[in-house]
Design goal:
Strand content: over 45%
Number of helices: 3
Order of helices and strands: HHEEEHEE
Amino acid sequence: MLPLQHNLGDYAEKISDILKTLEIVENRDQFDILSEFITNYPNFTVQGVVMQIATPEIDKLRGEITLLGAVFEKLKEIKTVLNNQDYILAIKAYQERLQIHCIGDLVKEDNHFILNNPQNLQIDG
């Protein structure tokens, strides 16, 4: 019995029961199972290490970076595009091997994670 209405009082309990059953049947962790269903997570806080920095665009101080960060308690690669000061901070974090954190909209596309609209990027430590 799959609950279809989110506003029912026992919705969370039923989803929890489903995850417990799948965990046993598939012999996998509930977080692994749940992460397959998540395709869009707004206002997600990412904390991780910059693993790769793409060459900046020719006419702008902007480029793609790849982070290694925790997504539902598993380390995953997360790609995002940073501009101006955030891109400079990411380069510094990469060079000095420092952790960063920021907030954005996490999207899963074809088993890849993308952080859209990154905001409030800060270097930890």
